[in-house]
Amino acid sequence: ADITPPVALAAYAGAAIAGANPMKTAFNATKLDIAAFIIPYILAYNPAMVLVDTTVVEVVMIAITSLIGMFGLGMALEGYYRGSIPWYLRILSAAGGLCLVDPGTVTDVIGIVVVGAIVVMQILRAKKTLSAPAIPLEKPRRRGALPLPQIKALSRRSQDPAASCFFVKIQ
């Protein structure tokens, strides 16, 4: 109740301090805290999480799939993983994350495939953008223009290893 609209006391107080829009702040707080709302359902759907009639392997598997599911939901709600995620992949990521929260082998496999495929696609998309040619940082100089000064940072350490001084030399 402290972060979810329409009450959202903590979100409204934070928005007042920051001078931000209270409703936008409350909705962003809800997005960031969605895991706190879903984890009780994981415990209700999976009695193995509270160690009732289970083995260690089942608990580890449920914990891993639930973490991957929360990761998928986080990607969907934030819309970002190594770059912006298109709306259709966000929907798939949310569906895959919810499949991983639901107990069962079939839903776990579907969720892992969907969330894993989106992660791989985002990694490949990020590598493709990084391998694009870089934009030159400085403009070409006009003919006859004076050369720009070169600035170098010089470091000199004092006797105290915790303190250091930096000097700038312009050539």
Give a written overview of the molecule:
The chain is mainly α and 171 residues long. The protein is 57% helix and 8% strand. It contains six helices and two strands, in the order H-H-H-H-H-H-E-E. It has helices at residues 9-18, 22-32, 34-45, 56-78, 87-101, 105-130; strands at residues 151-157, 164-170. Strands 1-2 form a two-stranded antiparallel ribbon. A hairpin with a 6-residue loop joins strand 1 (151-157) and strand 2. Helix 1 (9-18) packs across helix 2, helix 4 (56-78) crosses helix 6 and helix 5 packs antiparallel against helix 6 (105-130). Residues 157-169 have low confidence and may be disordered.
Topology:
Elements: H1 9-18, H2 22-32, H3 34-45, H4 56-78, H5 87-101, H6 105-130, E1 151-157, E2 164-170
Helix pairs in contact: 1-2, 3-4, 4-5, 4-6, 5-6
Key structural traits:
171 residues, mainly alpha, 6 helices, flat, disordered C terminus
